[in-house]
Design brief:
This protein is mainly β and 142 residues long. It has 1 helix and 10 strands; from the N terminus they run βββαβββββββ. The strands form 2 sheets. Strands 6-7-8-9-4-3-10 form a 7-stranded mixed sheet.
């Protein structure tokens, strides 16, 4: 991992139908715990790397858009359903959040902050204390 904010990162959806490049360093990288992000992703939290909209270049594929609230737009792959981007012209005009889990090399962009922790699932605060397993555990060991 690096402490610098890299430019030129690439990413895409799960099936490969959508590919993108980010031509500038990110503004920030946060882990969001809000209920809306959790429900949309089906995950306990979502990583978001914020960029100026001009930094994002969709190299391949067509992104579908879902209006998740009056101003929020969630952009995803119509083929595999991977959530890719979030825009909100009222809250973050001119900016786009990229789901950092869709980056090809997410290790190059360490998270800097957790946000919306008021909505965090209570046990997530201590998730780092749970036992770990490098790969899927043998069912006999569970």
């Amino acid at each position: 991992m690096t402490d610098t904010k890299p430019a030129g990162l690439t990413g895409g959806c799960h099936c490969g139908a959508i590919r993108y490049t980010l031509h500038e360093p990110p503004i920030n990288h946060t882990l969001c715990h809000c209920r809306d992000c959790r429900r949309n992703a089906g995950a306990q939290m979502v990583g978001w790397a914020m960029y100026r909209e001009q930094a994002l270049d969709i190299e391949m594929g067509e992104v579908a858009t879902y209006a998740s609230s009056e101003n929020a737009r969630r952009h995803f792959c119509i083929q595999c359903g991977t959530g890719l981007f979030y825009t909100n012209a009222a809250l973050i005009p001119g900016l786009v959040d990229i789901r950092s889990g869709t980056l090809d090399e997410p290790d190059l962009l360490p998270a800097q902050m957790q946000i919306q922790t008021a909505d965090r699932i209570s046990w997530m605060e201590d998730v780092h204390l749970l036992p770990t397993c490098e790969r899927y555990p043998n069912p006999k060991d569970l």
